[in-house]
Write a structure and sequence with these properties.
The chain has 13 helices and 28 strands. By secondary structure, the chain is of the alpha/beta class. The strands form seven sheets. The protein has an eight-stranded mixed β-sheet with strand order 1-12-11-13-14-15-16-17, sandwiched between helices. Strands 7-8-4-2-3-9-10 form a seven-stranded mixed β-sheet. Strand 18 and strand 19 form a beta hairpin. The protein is globular and about 65 Å long. About 5% of the residues have low confidence.
Length: about 450
């Protein structure tokens, strides 16, 4: 089904609540008029920070039939150079964004020389197929764009509605709209005719809108932790469902949420699948389960080898990574997992994160969970660093509570973990570098650890 400008304007007028939402219909018209003066299939980079301008740009580009590349306004020089080199865009929709002058499209064309009018920056044209490209992979240093279409995103919404048995999906969005977890909240509400509230997370920490009983909210673990520690923690129990994903949650956090009767739904999904493909229903979470739940009806998940690598087939699966198309309509992941006897999906960790120390395999998530369970740290990341004797040495980079020492942590872990799993190096920091989705760049931490241990 195709949607017109009138369909979107009618939806936003009757169902959208966010700052400056009254400006949206006019903005849609203005941006649509601007971009349709460009040749068909002009490639658009969308890097709007303000939700209203993001939605207006997204709607205008979609209805014009132009391919859209969603971008993080906070990318630095390195990320933008990757994106410009890869996409070679024709138009940039970004009213308050200045691409650093050091970023170039080619040796003779500097971004600082772009003409900007009303947030629309014109560049050279290369036509590509109509699609919605969503960024992924930034935490590993290499940005890729998963190629989605309106149909793949719609399939994800249909599976979500069937799984939760919903006619309308009412969404309370505090995640960035350029990220798949934010964009899909808009898609679920728009396609089902549900209400959509958009609020900056920092604003939400100060005040939450009333009448939350109908709403789904999506959070990452660090956001849930901050809200549970705030004066608004009681309000979380008012939501119909709190979807939790983006990064592994730790047991102390889940216990606290369960104690406060928060209807948490642990999710498993990714940009390539248009968000979640497995979800633990909130009733099951409150009963004590802590896995990723059952697979949603639009997806199939199989464990494809003895190691436990996960393979996905789904109607919502991306067509490929721009500009390449997958040769098979499936994706075998680095993620490791298994199905228990009740058919619930359990995630062990990532094969590439595995640490091999003295010939033994160590999965960081297990060690991180044990360290968190001591309640002596506020944040933790476990990595492997090269070691001439062990091959790799298990290393804990952590934010201690109070004056907790590494010796105390090691002693406490002796009864919880095998000896080879207990970190050999402990590096305390005041904070760990996490992105907006709560993910850590392990490669950067590994370099930091090597530098600090050499001192």
């Amino acid at each position: 089904m195709e949607y017109s400008l009138a369909d979107f304007k009618n939806y936003t007028k009757n169902h959208l609540l966010c700052e400056n939402s009254d400006r949206l219909p006019q903005l849609i018209e203005e941006i649509h008029l601007q971009i349709t003066q460009s040749p068909q299939n002009s490639k658009i980079l969308l890097a709007e920070r303000e939700p209203v301008r993001f939605l207006a740009s997204f709607i205008a580009a979609y209805t014009a039939g132009f391919p859209i590349f969603l971008c993080n306004p906070d990318w630095g020089n390195y990320e933008w150079q990757q994106v410009i080199d890869l996409v070679q865009p024709d138009i940039i929709l970004a009213s308050h964004l200045k691409i650093p002058a050091t970023v170039t499209t080619n040796t003779n064309y500097r971004c600082s020389a772009w003409e900007t009018t009303g947030g629309v920056q014109q560049l050279r044209r290369l036509p590509i197929p109509n699609s919605i490209m969503i960024p992924t992979g930034g935490s590993s240093g290499e940005i890729k764009f998963a190629i989605h279409t309106w149909e793949t995103l719609t399939a994800a919404v249909t599976g979500f509605r069937k799984y939760f048995q919903l006619e309308e999906v009412h969404s309370y969005c505090v995640l960035p709209l350029y990220h798949v977890s934010g964009l899909m909240q808009f898609m679920r509400s728009f396609l089902s005719g549900g209400d959509l509230v958009i609020q900056n997370f920092q604003q939400m920490e100060q005040a939450i809108y009333p009448n939350l009983q109908r709403f789904f909210i999506s959070l990452v673990p660090t956001q849930l932790q901050r809200l549970l520690q705030s004066s608004l923690s009681d309000r979380l129990a008012e939501f119909q469902t709190v979807l939790l994903g983006g990064a592994p949650a730790w047991s102390e956090l889940l216990t606290q949420a369960r104690t406060q009767n928060i209807r948490l739904a642990l999710t498993y999904g990714m940009t390539e699948t248009a968000a979640q493909i497995a979800t633990l229903k909130p009733e099951e979470f409150l009963q004590g389960k802590t896995n990723c739940g059952k697979v949603l009806p639009h997806a199939q998940v199989t464990i494809c080898n003895q190691q436990g690598n996960i393979k996905i087939q789904a109607e919502s699966l991306a067509l490929g990574y721009y500009p390449h198309i997958f040769t098979q309509p499936e994706l075998t992941l680095d993620d490791l997992g298994y199905f228990d006897s009740q058919g619930y999906l359990n995630i062990i960790g990532r094969s590439s994160d595995k640490i091999i120390t003295g010939g033994e395999n160590v999965y960081p998530v297990e060690v991180e969970t044990a360290i968190r369970d001591t309640q002596m740290v506020t944040d933790i990341c476990v990595i492997g660093i090269p070691d001439p004797h062990w091959g790799q040495a298990v290393t804990a980079i952590y934010v201690p509570k109070s004056n907790t020492s590494a010796t105390t942590l090691q002693t406490t872990l002796k009864s919880k973990l095998s000896k080879f799993k207990i970190p050999k190096h402990w590096i305390p920091l005041t904070t760990l570098p996490r992105n907006s989705q709560g993910k850590i760049n392990r490669q950067s931490l590994q370099q930091l650890a090597l530098t600090l241990l050499q001192k």
